[in-house]
Amino acid sequence: MPQNLISNQEISSLSAKWSNISLSPYLVYYDKDKIKQIHFESEQSLKLKTDIIMSTNIKGVAIWALGYEVPYTDLWKPISDLNKN
Length: 85
Fold this sequence. Notes:
By secondary structure, the protein is an alpha+beta fold. The protein has one domain (3-82). The chain has helices spanning 3-6, 9-12, 43-56, 76-82, and strands spanning 17-19, 24-31, 34-39. A three-stranded antiparallel β-sheet has the order 1-2-3. It comes from Candidatus Collierbacteria bacterium RIFOXYD1_FULL_40_9. This is GH18 domain-containing protein.
């Protein structure tokens, strides 16, 4: 979950849902009578995506804005496992 949201008690107490379209978890919450969604990566979602990379013989992968995952270093495990194959 994005680090800046964890400090928000209302959001951090929510249970994540799963999107079969994006293969990633997301949260739904209300803010000033508006429905908001936050989609994010998890170790499970990245593992599914790295499995797709390996099974389709994709030659590369790009990641947007590294550094926001701290202190959630478990997100790096599926990515580092790509280098072992």
